[in-house]
Amino acid sequence: MNYRCGTIRPARHASRQNRCDERSRDGSKKRMMYGLTVPSEPESRQSDFKRKMFGDFYQMNVPRLLADRRYCEALKTLERRRTEALQRAEKSGKGPLSWIAAKTGEERRDCERTMASLMDLVTFVTAVGVTKSANKSTDEKLWSIGTGKTWKALQEFPHRLQNVAREIEQLNQSPMFCPDRAINAKTPSAHYARIQFSRLPGTLRMYGTWVEVWTKKIPAIMGEFLGRRSRGKADTLVAVSYLIALVTGRFNDNEAAELLNAADLILNPETDKGEPRFHPQTLADLRSRRKRKSNKI
């Protein structure tokens, strides 16, 4: 599965043996359970930024999951459950996946590709569900990705720009480096240089102020996107559970917990290796709690 402009795009059907190596593409808009959405069209500048964060999060975490043997084995187990459910539906004509079993020809292949793309989506939502905010350094690496700077350096960068602005301002006011005096040619480029050099300190101050304000906003925006992550976000974990049920015909909580724990060990190396974070009963309890809350609304 490749992330491009906020859209999950599955590729052509791949064999089960290559599922961990070849990810799929799709042009349709995917709306996950309980409001987790991957939009396909830009709505605003802020939503563009959030889509960029989706992409950065994907690139930073999903390849690590797909390269791990234990995680791929957990995925293959879920795919075996899907195959078994399809075989039962073909024999009996009943069951959650009977609507796929009833299809033939190109319609059946389209359904298979859709199910394969949803399995890819499981990996992305799993990564979101297990990532913990307790590891502050992981968040800061994500926030500063592509800048060539650490988050700490980015927070200090506005102050550096203000200092540079003061130094340039002092140079511009000196007898030897004053742009109006030192650049005395009558050409359009010289006139442009005099104007821009005089404006440079103010431009740097403005840019430094913007970087300072934006670095303060990013944690809140990312917190809204990723949610609270102390022990895995409940809504996202429920989304993983329902996605697995949609693809395999059953919740398969034992296999889902194994998938989540495999991802947890990869994305949260500091996790206690002796005690898994996610248990089958936890997923069942989260679904039950979500159902009770939905009934009250």
Structure explained in plain terms:
The protein is mainly α. The protein folds into 2 domains: 2-133 and 230-296, no CATH class; 139-226. It is built from 11 helices and 4 strands; from the N terminus they run ββββααααααααααα. It has helices at 45-66, 69-92, 98-101, 105-130, 136-143, 151-172, 179-182, 188-226, 234-248, 253-267, 280-296; strands at 2-4, 7-9, 30-31, 37-38. The strands form 2 sheets. A two-stranded antiparallel ribbon has the order 1-2. It has a two-stranded antiparallel sheet with strand order 3-4. Helix 6 packs antiparallel against helix 8 (188-226). The longest helix has 39 residues, at 188-226. It starts with a strand and ends with a helix.
The neighbouring-strand order within the major sheet is: 1-2
Tally of separate helices: 11
β-sheet strand percentage = under 5%
Domain unit count: 2
| Order of SSEs | EEEEHHHHHHHHHHH
Broad structural category:
mainly alpha
- Alpha-carbon Rg, integer: 26 Å
- Give the distance, in angstroms, between the N- and C-terminal Cα atoms: 36 Å
Q: Provide the helix percentage.
A: 55-70%
> Major β-sheet, in short?
2 strands, antiparallel
- What overall form do the CA principal axes indicate? elongated
Which stretches of 5+ consecutive residues score pLDDT under 50?
Answer: 1-42, 228-232
**Overall strand count:** 4
Q: Look at the structure and give the mean pLDDT.
A: 79
